[in-house]
Amino acid sequence: MTLAIAPNDFLIVVDVQYDFLPGGNLAVAHGDEIVPLVNALAKKFTNVVLTQDWHPKDHISFASQHTGKAPFETIELDYGTQVLWPDHCVWNTRGAEISGDLDIAHAQLIIRKGFRRGIDSYSGFQEADRETVTGLAGYLGEREAGRLYIVGLATDFCVAWTALDGAAAGYDVTIIEDATRAIDNGGSLDKAWADLAEAGVQRIMSRDILG
Ligand code: VGL
Ligand code: ZN
What we know:
alpha/beta, Rossmann fold, two-stranded antiparallel sheet, 5 helices, 8 strands, globular, binds pyrazine-2-carboxylic acid, binds zinc ion
């Protein structure tokens, strides 16, 4: 039994950018393996939205901005605990570009996030202060979106946060698990799946759609 995708369902392709792919500055292990699946899945959807992590070079999430701090350590900011990352997805660099191996000409919108120096943004909906919005909820509302299906990088950060915010906005949200790969830093992947289950986000495999 394959799942039927409705004409108003949306596929959200999260952060398939060179810096998250092998050889990139914040490479997600095996991240490149999802690309053929994402391309095949996208053909089943009328509506596809992409997100793009897009940081100024002095972004607050970069360990390089905090004396004595190394990547993957954390700091406390006004809005809460922030994981520090290697410099990545700096705007107008190749690492920030969406992979040229994605073959989704019919993608309709690219949401950039994390472009304010002082606020990180994993979610495609809301930045890490949980106040600043990207406009995606408004867009999906005006487009009268049905279900949201989410793929991309990384499962435990931008995919999970996007899915949680989609569910909080009232959408029926499904993560297509084998079309994601995780960073998995300090138990982050197990925690993400637990949070997602609690929020009612569904978890399927690409074969459930592709057959
Ligand atoms: C991401 C860490 C920092 C992601 C983005 O796309 O999951 N992770 N910025
Ligand atoms: Zn980032």
